[in-house]
Amino acid sequence: MPLLITLTLEVVEVRDDSIPEYAILSHTWGDEEISLEEIGSLGAAELYVVPSTPDVVRGKTGLSKIRNSARLAREDGYRYLCIDTCCIDKSSSAELSEAINSMYRWYEGAAICYAYLFDAENLRDESPLQESSTFRRSKWFTRGWTLQELIASKDVKKISEDNFLQLLSYITGVDESVLDGSARLDEISVASRMKWASGRVTTRVEDIAYCLVGIFNVNMPLLYGEGEKAFIRLQEEILKSSNDQSLFAWKGPATANGNNMPSGLLAQSPVYYQDVRTLLPPTSFQTQESFPSSMTNQERTFPRNP
Question: Domain locations in the chain?
Answer without folding.
Answer: 190-306
